[in-house]
Amino acid sequence: NQPPDVAADGLPYYAFRWFYQEIPKKMQEAIGVNHISFDFNPCGHPPLGVFTKPHYDAHMYLVDIDTRLCMTCDLVPNAPVCNPTGQTTVNGKKFFNVGTNIIEDSPANMPLDYEVGLGDMVPLMGGHAWNVGAQPTTTTWTKPIWVMGSYDSKLASYEPMIPLQFMTGDTDQEWSVDNTYVGQTVKTLPTKVRVSYEASTKITTIHLEGKSGKSCKSPKEPKSPKATKAPKATKAPKATKAPK
Predict the structure, then answer these.
(1) Tell me: the pLDDT tens digits for 153-205?
(2) Is it the case that residue 236 has pLDDT exceeding 70?
């Protein structure tokens, strides 16, 4: 059966929906992430011929919701991306302020060879960067890709971008990547990312490994009780002399 043109929430069935979940404060301190947003793109998104196929963006945002609400810009006519040459607001210009590492002249806190494309700035999200030299095409894209986002010279998000065909079907799937970062100043960035799909349960799991931002102190061992001193022996009474 074909889905209806308009879904129950009043939006077109294939429209983008903004969904997010803030994570507990203790976890925020440990991994540096404020909230997670699982966004389904039924028709994909630009660049055309690369990511224009059904997939999930598992965004993990380092910035809070209030900051994202200010991430607005002047759009390219008839396109959902920021105009690289026509920004009239301070917030819009911040999209194109990309922090770089001076030595390698590449984006800071991102893997080497990552590029922040001028045409990949998205309102409420920020810029998007990946290794363009190793990017797939729509027909060859079958495994997740590690993508990182920036805004106003800072790292704003990261995500595994997962093709729908990777997380459906009757065959288990697994993908992983080891990351090192150029000019790293955010110590909680994941050094290993693994995405797995279990066909028997239809469950997709995202596993991140990295350095915690929260010190893990071992609980102090309880002090052993002090030994009690034995009571002093009482002196025997002196013998009294017999009367003469």
Answers:
(1) 999 999 999 999 999 999 999 999 999 999 999 999 999 999 999 999 999 99
(2) no
The beta strands (E) that lie in 91-233 are given as: 100-101, 106-107, 115-116, 129-130, 145-151, 154-163, 173-178, 190-198, 203-210
| pTM (2 d.p.) | 0.83
Residues shown for the chain: 244
Could you give the C-alpha distances from 108 to 62, 129, 183, in angstroms and in order? Answer: 15, 11, 5
| Residue 69: its H or E element | helix 65-69
Supply angle C-alpha 117, 142, 13, rounded to 5. 80
Compute the distance between CA of residue 51 and CA of residue 119 in angstroms, rounded to an integer: 14
Q: Which two tokens stand for residue 193?
A: 């990312």
pLDDT at 235 exceeding the cut of 80: no
Euclidean distance between CA atoms 8 and 4, whole angstroms: 9
